[in-house]
């Protein structure tokens, strides 16, 4: 009996000496989640990349020491993008955002080699187990900007400088025109195609050509602030895109359609941190806070501002859908019915849009 008690005492002593300290030692601090961002142009004061950079900063502000973010700017689409994305994965980044359509295929290729890394292909449409996609309903903001343009124009002619004739751009042109004509049935929109996303001299030249065709308000779907600067120079009006551009065009800007990525980026980073991240496809707009119209210029009357903001609330609440035909058929600019009265386009139809609405002067890609 005494022998067994002695043996137990020895075991207890050993446990106290060797086991207890292990539990009393502080746990090693968890390494922050490394997050990488890849940008297709330099980070400028305004524009597409600026809004994603603001999104990155929002992640830092929201999550603090839980994350460590970095970015690589001015990365061309294609092989350079694949190299940069691969480098970020090799450097231990566990979440990588690639916000440019041309990054989609390079992202997928790298993702196959790094199954433990989560990727977010922004504006892409192909997913994988570790690749999610996200985009915004930019056309909702375009419709609202069209309302402002329709109220502000005096010539009833708006210009539109467009990059490439992909569905996203066609959605924007058509929604802008429908918004404009909802308050000004005589309005027309003249489109100039650049077949470039970022070429400031060409953007400026296109804007000047449109002003010479009697356009007194202009919108654009390109990457720089050149169109806004041209409007300021000529004493015309313009709709800012991606960012608030009043610093560049304080007299010209009537309204800005801004992209808000901070909420989405922060949510996805949190999901990686807590282990709930899943692949998927998000297409959010005004309701989700990914698109916002505001930042009115000083020339815009309060009544117009209030009207635009009220319609923004209608879109958020689902009372207004830009591609819904309420009072009459919606036709393309060749006379074909594209939305029958009482109907509205579904997401699949919007995503495949290949026509220009009545009121647009121009053809797809020309």
Give a short summary of the structure.
This protein is of the alpha/beta class.
Topology (SSEs and partners):
Blueprint: H1 2-18, H2 20-24, E1 33-38, H3 48-63, E2 67-72, H4 79-90, E3 95-99, H5 104-113, E4 118-122, E5 131-136, H6 138-152, E6 157-162, H7 167-183, E7 188-193, H8 200-212, E8 217-221, H9 226-234, E9 237-242, E10 253-259, H10 262-274, E11 281-284, E12 291-294, H11 302-317, E13 330-331, E14 337-339, H12 347-351, E15 360-361
Parallel strand pairs: 1-2, 1-3, 3-4, 4-5, 5-11, 6-7, 6-8, 7-15, 8-9, 9-10
Antiparallel strand pairs: 10-12, 13-14
Helix pairs in contact: 3-10, 4-5, 6-7, 6-11, 8-9
Plain-language structure description:
This protein folds into 2 domains: 33-136, Rossmann fold (3-Layer(aba) Sandwich), CATH 3.40.50.2300; 138-259 and 290-361, Response regulator (Rossmann fold, 3-Layer(aba) Sandwich). 44% of the residues are buried. α6 (138-152) runs parallel beside α7 (167-183). It has helices at 2-18, 20-24, 48-63, 79-90, 104-113, 138-152, 167-183, 200-212, 226-234, 262-274, 302-317, 347-351, and strands at residues 33-38, 67-72, 95-99, 118-122, 131-136, 157-162, 188-193, 217-221, 237-242, 253-259, 281-284, 291-294, 330-331, 337-339, 360-361. The longest helix has 17 residues, at 2-18. Strands 12-10-9-8-6-7-15 form a 7-stranded mixed β-sheet, sandwiched between helices. Strands 2-1-3-4-5-11 form a 6-stranded parallel β-sheet, sandwiched between helices. A two-stranded antiparallel sheet has the order 13-14. It is globular and about 60 Å long. It has 366 residues and is of the alpha/beta class. The chain is built from 12 helices and 15 strands.
């Amino acid at each position: 009996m005494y022998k067994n008690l002695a043996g137990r005492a020895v075991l207890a002593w050993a446990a106290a000496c060797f086991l207890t300290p292990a539990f009393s030692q502080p746990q090693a601090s968890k390494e922050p989640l490394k997050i990488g961002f890849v940008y297709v142009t330099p980070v400028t004061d305004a524009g597409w990349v600026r809004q994603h950079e603001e999104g990155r900063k929002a992640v830092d502000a929201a999550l603090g020491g839980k994350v460590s973010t970095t970015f690589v700017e001015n990365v061309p689409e294609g092989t350079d993008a694949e190299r940069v994305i691969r480098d970020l994965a090799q450097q231990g980044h566990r979440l990588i955002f690639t916000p440019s359509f041309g990054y989609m295929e390079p992202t997928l290729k790298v993702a196959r080699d790094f199954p433990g890394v989560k990727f977010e292909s922004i504006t892409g449409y192909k997913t994988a187990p570790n690749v999610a996609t996200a985009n915004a309903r930019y056309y909702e903001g375009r419709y609202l900007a069209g309302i402002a343009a329709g109220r502000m124009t005096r010539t009833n002619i708006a210009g539109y400088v467009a990059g490439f004739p992909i569905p996203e751009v066609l959605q924007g042109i058509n929604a802008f025109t429908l918004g404009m004509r909802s308050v000004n049935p005589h309005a027309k929109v003249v489109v100039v195609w650049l077949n470039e996303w970022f070429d400031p001299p060409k953007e400026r030249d296109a804007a000047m050509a449109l002003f010479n065709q009697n356009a007194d308000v202009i919108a654009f779907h390109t990457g720089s602030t050149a169109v806004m600067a041209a409007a300021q120079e000529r004493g015309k009006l313009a709709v800012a895109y991606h960012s608030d551009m009043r610093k560049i065009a304080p007299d010209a800007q009537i309204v800005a359609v801004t992209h808000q990525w901070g909420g989405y980026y922060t949510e996805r980073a949190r999901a990686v941190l807590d282990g709930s991240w899943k692949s998927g496809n998000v297409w959010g707009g005004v309701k989700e806070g990914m698109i916002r119209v505001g930042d009115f210029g000083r020339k815009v009357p309060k009544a117009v501002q209030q009207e635009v903001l009220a319609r923004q609330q209608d879109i958020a609440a689902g009372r207004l859908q830009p591609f819904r035909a309420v009072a009459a058929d919606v036709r393309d600019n060749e006379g074909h019915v594209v939305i029958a009265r009482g109907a509205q386009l579904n997401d699949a139809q919007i995503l495949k849009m290949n026509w220009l609405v009545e009121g647009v002067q121009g053809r797809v890609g020309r």
